[in-house]
Amino acid sequence: MSLDIVVPVILTVISAATPLLLAGIGELVAERAGVLNLGIEGMMLVGAVAAFAVAHVTGNYMLAILVAAMAGALLALIFGVLTLTLVSNQVATGLALTLFGIGLSALAGAGFVGSPIAPLPKLEIPGLSELPFIGPILFHQDVLVYLSVALTLGVIWFLKRTRAGMILRACGDSDVSAHSIGYDVIRIRYLAVLFGGVTSGLAGAYLSLAYTPMWVENMTAGRGWIALGLVVFSSWRPLRLLGGAYLFGGVTILQLYVQGMGGIGVPAQVLSMLPYIATIVVLTIISAGPWRGRLDAPACLGKPFRPAT
C-alpha cells in the first residue's frame, strides 16, 4: 500500500477515534468517582447542535466549541442534581438524559438540517505540517484532535500523580471511607460529572464541526454507547482508553473502506454493524474470559451515596 493511501486512511481513523476518545475520557473520570452516567449520547447530541448553531450563525468556531462544552455541562448538571442530590437511580436517569438529549437536539436543530458549514480549520505548524507522511498526521490536525490527546494525558497525570486524583479515586472505591475522613464526596462527584459533560459536549462539537460539518438528527449514531463500552474495555485506565478509541475508530473506518471496495457479497447494513458488533464481542470476552479479574471497576460505581448527618 502506497503512502498516498496510508496517510488518508490514518487521517480518517483519527477523525473517527477523536469523538470516542473525548466522550470516553470524561466518562472514565466520572466512573472513577463512582458515578455511572449513561447519558453520553444525549450530551453529545446537544453539544453537536449547539456547536453547529453557533458556528453557522456567527462563524466563530472557538465560541462554538465553548458553547458546546457548556451545553454538555448543563445536561450533566441536570443529571448530577437528579442522581447526587435527589438520589435517583443512575441507570434510569442516564437513559432518560439520552432520550431528552435526542429530543432536544432534534427540536433545536430543526432549522439547521441540510445547512453545511466550512469544516473546523486545521492548525498549521510552520516547517512541520509540510513534512512527508508525519506532517499531515501529527502536525496538521484541528484543535479538538490535539485537545483529546492532551486531556487523556492530563487525566493520566491527574489520577496517578496528584492528591486530588487520589481523592477522586477514593470516592469511587469507598465513598463512606472518603466521607468519614472529611472529603465532600458529593461535591467531588459533581465536578467529575461536569467534566464528563464538558468532554461529551466537545465530542459532539467535533462531529458537527469537523467530522461531518453539518447538522443531522441523531448524528452520533451510537458513538456514546461505544464510548461507554470503551471505558470498560480500558479497565478504567486512560492510556488503554486512548488505544481502544483508535482501535474502534479503525474498525469504523474499515467497514467504510470495505463497502467502497464492493464485490464482497456482504450487505452494506451488515458492514455498518461492525463497530457495534466489535464492541459487544470485546466486552463479552473481557467479562467472561480470564481477563474478568482485571476489570478493577470502582467498588461504588452506580451506587447512591447519602452523607451521614
TrEMBL record:
Keyword Membrane on entry: yes
Protein's membrane topology: Multi-pass membrane protein
InterPro entries referenced in this protein's UniProt entry, alphabetically: ABC_transp_permease (IPR001851)
Primary location: membrane
TM helices/strands, residue ranges: 6-23, 35-55, 61-87, 94-118, 138-159, 190-209, 241-258, 264-286
CDD domains: TM_PBP1_transp_TpRbsC_like
Keyword Cell wall biogenesis/degradation set for record: no
A Pfam match: BPD_transp_2
Record keywords, A-Z: Cell membrane, Membrane, Transmembrane, Transmembrane helix
Subcellular location: Cell membrane
Domain of life: Bacteria
Official protein name in the record: ABC transporter permease
